[in-house]
Structure prediction request, 402 residues.
Amino acid sequence: MSAAFHAGRLTGRKIVILVSAFVRGGFERQVCLLARELRQRHGLDVEVWALWEGECAKEFESAGVPTRALRFTRPQCPVRWVRALHWTRRLLRVVRQLREGHVDILLPFGSWPNVVAGMSYRLAGIGLCIWGERSGGRAPGERRAMRQYKYFVANTISGVEYLAGKMGIPRQRISLVPNAVEVPTVNSGTDWRAKLRLKPEQPLVVKIAAIEKTHDHATLLHAWKIVQEPWRGSTRPVLALAGFIGDAYADCRQIVRKAGLDSTVRFLGIIDDVPALIRASDFAVFSSHGEGMPNGVLECMAGGKAVVASDLPGVREALGPNAAEVLVSPGDAREFAREILDLLRDTEKRHGLGEANRARARTEFSVQRMVEQHLQVIQENWHISPLSAATKGRFMRAGGRI
Prediction:
């Protein structure tokens, strides 16, 4: 069944992809790619909505994707009945917003969107809502919300196993749609090696990830201290950390100061020309406590770089057959340092791994493949529920009042 046929069946239907906030995160990057392609390539009416506002809504708009922030707030009152009342009022507000937006198909990505969508889409009369398992954090009320869904999408095999094994979802109701990564284009004139004041022979290692506790920069920095020990002179390897400055930044700065790593660790924050930084590097690293399928790994693979990473199911799936050579136990700084030193010393190995990663990214994680798989899931499960339509009618005859 062709993607054109899928798109044709959905013409005239309003599709909303729901995220937590408009930020530069992995979920949001995947959503931007999906929404952009569904609109531009397949001509579908797609918008991206967020529960909360964020600083990056303009990035979606610049890709031609309309956005909307629902301004949903999490009920946090410690009194149970008051919290339940707040939940009811806020969810009914979401119902009204979905109804007024004439939404036909709702695709939540991540835990909070899954919960809010699951508890509201039937009252809004939405014909299809698909759970988007991204293996991120967990939100209160997931089990209750999950009972409202018929169809599920996971971006990793481990996500499928979580839904089927731990949550008891029948496997035939779960679809696997891996993340995607674009073939990198370097549009910026930034010469990162010059900007970082590196000598021609000085190695550069990068990590692309928000500096948040879940991404375990601490283990990487402790490993980097070990990496520095055998090096002498002014050509010590430099570690560049690119990503949102989050809740782990203060601790990371303290580790750098105490370990005397100020001259070999650079915190870059959010940058606009990630492909240029990756191209300038020798290889990449990715330490983490828990991940789905991280964009930071896929982007470096697409850039033709080897990646030393924590041994997590989603990372293993991304790296594929070569994973065993470069994966280390999460939290093990010495093992991490050993693998980094191995690649620093073995140019041929890191080039070979890099080219294999580039080929795998293009064949297994293309944007076209991801979009067509999503279209297939939507097409196979699309229907207008008579019960939902009746519920919608009763809600609107009541004036949609909250």
Q: What stands out?
A: The first helix runs from residue 3 to 10.
